[in-house]
Amino acid sequence: MVQKQARPRKGIRAGQGQSGEKGDKMQLKDKTVIITGGAQGIGAAVARRFATEGAHVVIGDLDGDKAAVVGAEIGGLGLRCDVTQEADILHLVDETRARFGPVDLFYSNAGLGRWEPDHAASASNADWQLNWEVHVMSHVYAARAVLPEMIERSSGYLLQMSSAAGLLNQIGNAAYSATKHAAVGFAESLAISHANDGVRVSVVCPQYVATPLLGYESGEMPADAPNVLSPDAVAEVILQGVAQEKFLILPHPEVAQFIQFKTADYDRWLATMVDLRGKIIGQLGSTRDIGMHKMI
Q1: Pick the catalytic residue: 107, 157, 176, 216?
Q2: pLDDT tens digit string along 184-206?
Q3: Residue 205 half-sphere exposure, CB side, CA atoms within 13 Å?
Q4: 172: which of 200, 247, 273, 288 lies 20 to 30 Å off by Cα?
Q5: Are 212 and 40 in contact (CB under 8 A)?
Q6: 107 is catalytic
């Protein structure tokens, strides 16, 4: 008996998977894009960069006024959106559809950072819950809102912000590190589950960027921290990563070497991190000082 050759599932170009080795790459011209946390920092830089590529960009941000300003600047739309509320994300998607049509790419970018007050479990339940809601559940809400139509038309892109802390660790912020790890895990699940549905997934894992999260309110670049990137530089790397349909987008390429070091000898990596923590405390007196990024 001759077995029939299996046909590619709906939404797959023959010979192409998540990495997009064959066929057309992702093009942003005339695509409808949603970006959460897009009123400032990396989100705003990506919104501007995607708009220059011809995308119709809708920004959702807790600061609705700033979102509206950036949205108007790029010829898109800016709305208030609390990403911890699924109803807000659903509203954002509905407004986007009404203005520009179905969502082609959803960039879950919103994030926060709050240093733990003492030991690794010392952050309040409220802070742990907020980290979970912003860094993980907002991604779940976004995927839940747009995946069905992406699967139906065999096309779509889920772009998700995590952090190098989601692959390594952030000293002094266990809640941030744990939830950023969870964000990477969820992105992996999406990529595995929906590659054959024509849905592409990328997760962005930068190290330090000159944003308000690190105290850089006006986007100035520190002369004494050469490892800190500008939001515009990160946006450019994200654009290229999306164009190549790369799953793991690393604005700081050295993070790939750190991952290899970690996985090659976990105990040695942990010892190195313990030493680094001691160095930070010795020089700054605490791991709650945002200036620690200048030592890494």
Answers
A1: 176
A2: 999 999 999 999 999 999 999 99
A3: 29
A4: 247
A5: yes
A6: no
